[in-house]
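Raw record, unedited: Ras-related protein Rab
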Amino acid sequence: RLLQNFRKKELLFKILIIGDYGVGKTSIIKRYADGTFSPSYKITIGADFAIKILNWDDNTRINVQLWDIAGHERFGYLTGVYYRYAVAAAIVFDLTRPETFKSVEKWLLDLRKKVNLPGGHPVPVVVLANKGDITIATLPEEIVNFCEKYNILAWFITSAKDDVHIDEAMITLINAAIEHH
Ligand code: GTP
Ligand code: MG
């Protein structure tokens, strides 16, 4: 058994979680990595990260490194540094604040300008419409059109509070990362 562990293939995937301030990036990461949720808002300064280890199959262990980029960093020069070596990204907006959906395009263009996969392929992206446990103000039709226009892998209505579609979104990104690995 020890020998088997020793022989396991280890992969490290850096995944970015980006989007406007207060949309729930930190909450999504906390939910996924620790299984917890806090209703109080503690603003992220700069960037932070969490790691989740997945025993993917008998031969593979994946270290998922989730990078939590502060919402107010969009126009900061640091985003390029934070984005480096990323293999996938989730762009999050807040369903109850339509203006945060408008920003998804800006985040995506910033990402595509600053980082690519080693082969030159664009970084795979999912869009997360978060706080789905509250009222939905942004129309799904707009989201679908956006995702078609920009070749987005998938979109999900998520809730970090109620743990809805967070695992599905992460698995979609990890599968895409494996495919391009
Ligand atoms: P910055 O660090 O400023 O960029 O914000 P953020 O995107 O990390 O947002 P954060 O996760 O701190 O969440 C902001 C607020 O929204 C907090 O009060 C959270 O508790 C709340 N929140 C996050 N996700 C959800 C959700 O799915 N449902 C509800 N009801 N509240 C949420
Ligand atoms: Mg945060």
